Amino acid sequence: MRLATSTGDLLHYTSSPAEAVRAFEGTGFRYLDYSFYNAARPGLPFMDEKDWMREVAAAASEAERLGFDFVQAHSPGNNFLVADGAGKADDYEFTVKANIRSIEACGYLGVKNLVVHSGISGELIYPQDRERYFEINRDFYRRLYSAMEKHGVHVLIENSARANMGDRYFFMTGREMVDFIEYCDHPLMGACWDVGHANMQNPAQYGDIVDLGGMLKAIHFQDNMGRSDDHLAPFMGTLDVDSVMQGLIDSGYVKRGGVLTFESDNILTRAGGWPNYRNEKSPRGRCAYEPSLQLKRAAIGLLYNIGCDILKAYNIDID
Description:
Layout: E1 2-6, H1 17-23, E2 31-35, H2 54-66, E3 69-74, H3 92-109, E4 113-115, H4 130-142, H5 145-151, E5 154-158, H6 162-165, H7 174-184, E6 189-194, H8 195-201, H9 206-212, E7 216-221, H10 241-250, E8 259-262, H11 293-313
Parallel strand pairs: 1-2, 1-8, 2-3, 3-4, 4-5, 5-6, 6-7, 7-8
Helix pairs in contact: 1-2, 7-9, 9-10
């Protein structure tokens, strides 16, 4: 089994995705998840009309030079629906364009699985507005089908939790994700199970993971205390690692060569790292405001060793 982590771990410490790739040298990781999460904003290189692939190509070149492989990706986190009754949505066509570019970038990188968040809206309430929620989100994903088919990229929906979304989201269980994927009825639609989100909703995750079966294409591996989406490393919170691992084995995910992808970017928390923010004001300055890049890289090395220990405990070969 391959262990991967997100380039998002280090994007805030570096000036480009290529520089972030370089910063993973010596951490133990050889496989990376390319994060486009914050890339789709006007004026950023990814949304440039003439040369938007430049950053992706530079990161790919650096990865090849250093012996890294991109094995998964996360699309921009834009929300095309109104977040709450008065909130402003991201522009629909802009969001579609950003996601199509993410799919094209995955084709360039050789990545087969891309997580694309569904829309959230305070005007569609869980669970009674499920039919309308399914319809609106299917219409959005349909806009991506042509690019998915051209590049052979699976688009994956992701589970969440009421602690994150309140009653604005509809994929809280494995069964609900299966229902939506079957509703879309497209062979390149699949699921990413986020174990940290699930830990806030139903800590006994085995049944949800098994319910997903072959639709499960990716894992986001992170921990928390069951109250907020802290993105900690396993064993730093209340995550039932055994329930998750047994589910991954019995669902066939391990046998299918699935990747264990960490989203534990708060193993050391940045001052501005969601969802917990450090006080910005100190009467005598901010010399130790947040962890240095050197310390962050050491923490990512620990994260890799945690992954190795978990896989070894289950006699799973580490690629």
